[in-house]
Amino acid sequence: MKILKRRDFRDLMIGKAISMIGSNVQQFALSLYVLSTTQSATVFASMLAISILPRILLSPVAGVFGDWFDRKKTIVRLDVINGLLIGSYALYFYLNDGLSLWSVYLLVILLEIIEVFFGSAMGAVIPSMVNKEDLIEANRSRSMIMSLANMMAPVLASAIYGMFGLFVVLVMNALSFLASAFFENRIEIPTFHKQPAKIDVGSFKVDFLDGLRVLRSHRVLTNIIGLGIFLNFSLSPLFSVGIVVIVMDVLKASEFELGLIMTISAVAMFVGPLLLGKKVQRIPMGQLLIMAFFTVGILIVLMSVVSLNATIQYIGYTQAIVALIALLMFLVALLTTVANIAVGTLFDTLVPKEYFGRVGSVMNMSLMATIPLGQILFGISIDRISAPITILVVGIITLLATLYFKNIFIEKEKSHDIQVLSS
Which class in CATH covers the domain with range 2-195? Predict the structure, then answer.
């Protein structure tokens, strides 16, 4: 990939990969630590639910701040703060021979608050560093590197936590953030921030409303939010809850087989960006988005059919069903990754660089807000009806939402409201 030959982009990706591996290893290790300490999955689930609140509540503030202040200084300083915070927790762990439950809650919330502000500033960095014609390749490269980091994290977490415990995990993650800050400090990022002469509530209100105006002025952006709300509501519970229930409860498969399916899905997220070669890049991004999610909807309907008791009894071989589920999950994860790259490229193309923080944070806040509701309803539906029927409903919602928004994306591209990128 030619884009990785650019030192600034390469250093940015190296820094992000290092900190992402550290964070994912820590998240995995913390889950094991809390589960082993409390013997309660509900406790950790509640902690994950609480961690979403800072993202929902602080996204508008973080978006404005991301556009006000120098983005390079912001991401470097926040990574240093992350490193110092986690380092202090490592010291706390060492002195007290463990972490209390409340301190773990506090750590998760503080890290999420920092991540909200970091993500707001970081969202504009890549579009500021590369030309529009290189955005697809840049987003593709970023997706591949982040997916590779996600694939490595569970293996590393299991090994490090199993051999050395949580203390070493915390120390390594603290060092990973400091290393990330070092690489980020080496890069040159063009400045597009615009800080007001006076920072107060009035300035914040004016700039936040200005960001909303930019968002509303692009019907494509508002419809990305609309489509994303439906898809996050239905697809997120499928990945986090549905596949576990199907494999473990319906098919009575082993933890190893579940882990294998999860690994296959992670591989798909790495392979997905490779499909975005020159021929695929010539497809308009809106059309690519619709094609990918419509196919995902069909695959989810097939997944529900495969997991029906009638199908299981007809085939009569559980491992064959598990293999089919693994194949379908691979395709779903692959196409979802491709669609996410398309969404990112549309966003990077349409939004003026000085508005990236505000517009991006409002979009993320809107999309994140539906995930907890979807997970709750998904769980209730599985308990009261069945997992296959619930997954069938998810597939139908995905298909109907894609069909509803189809003409909006395709017609806007034909009218050149969306700039089509090609190589």
Answer: mainly alpha
**The CATH homologous superfamily of the domain defined by 212-414:** MFS general substrate transporter like domains (1.20.1250.20)
Report the helix count and the strand count for the chain, using DSSP H and E. Answer: 17, 0
Residues 6+ apart with CB under 8 A from 151: 263, 266, 267, 269, 270
pLDDT tens figures, 90-134: 999 999 988 888 888 888 889 888 888 887 777 777 777 777 677
User: What does the pLDDT look like over 250-285, one tens digit per residue?
Assistant: 888 776 777 778 778 878 877 777 766 555 566 677
Q: Supply the pTM of this predicted model.
A: 0.69
Intrachain domains 2-195 and 212-414 with the same fold: yes
For 74, residues 6+ apart whose C-beta sits below 8 A from its C-beta are 65, 66, 117, 118, 121
CB within 8 A of 40, min separation 6: which ones?
A: none
For residue 39, CA distances in Å to 35, 42, 44, 241, 276 come to: 5, 9, 10, 19, 44
Compute the distance between CA of residue 271 and CA of residue 140 in angstroms, rounded to an integer: 10
Which position has the token pair 């990918």?
Answer: 292
Judged by DSSP in three states, 186 sits in coil
Q: What is the largest CA-CA distance in the chain?
A: 71
In the numeric block, the tokens 């986090």 are attached to 240
Rounded Cα distance, 62 and 183, in Å: 23
CA 367 to each of CA 113, 174, 277, 362: distance values in angstroms, whole numbers, following the listed order: 17, 30, 28, 9
Return the structure tokens found at 14: 């190296």
